[in-house]
Amino acid sequence: MTEEITKTDTERTLDGEMQKYGIKRVPVDYFHINGFRYTDLKDAVAQAKRTNATKKASV
């Protein structure tokens, strides 16, 4: 048995607008490092490498 979640009028309106205009909702992964947020893992890894290199150089 599934529980139906009650939507507000605004949510129902926005859902209707999404259908009307063919807008799709997709989940997004975020990668956080040193207070910054990246949507591309390659960018987060590159930043981590730069940060790690900077820490090693200052020791």
Structure description:
There is one protein chain. With 59 residues, the protein is mainly alpha-helical. The chain has a domain at 25-59. It has helices at residues 9-21, 41-57, and strands at 31-33, 36-38. Strands 1-2 form a two-stranded antiparallel sheet. The model has no long low-confidence stretch (mean pLDDT 89).
Total strand segments: 2
Separation, N- and C-terminal Cα atoms = 59 Å
Largest sheet: 2 strands, antiparallel
Mean pLDDT: 89
Determine the number of helices (DSSP H or I, runs of at least 4 residues). Answer: 2
Low-confidence stretches: none
Structural class computed from helices and strand pairing: mainly alpha
How do the helices and strands follow one another from N- to C-terminus?
HEEH
- The fraction of residues in strands falls at 5-15%
Strand order of the biggest β-sheet: 1-2
Shape descriptor reads elongated
The helix fraction, in percent, is 40-55%
Radius of gyration: 21 Å
Blueprint of the fold:
Layout: H1 9-21, E1 31-33, E2 36-38, H2 41-57
Antiparallel strand pairs: 1-2
Keyphrases for this structure?
59 residues, mainly alpha, two-stranded antiparallel sheet, 2 helices, 51% helix, elongated
Quick description:
The chain is built from two helices and two strands. The protein has helices at residues 9-21, 41-57; strands at residues 31-33, 36-38.
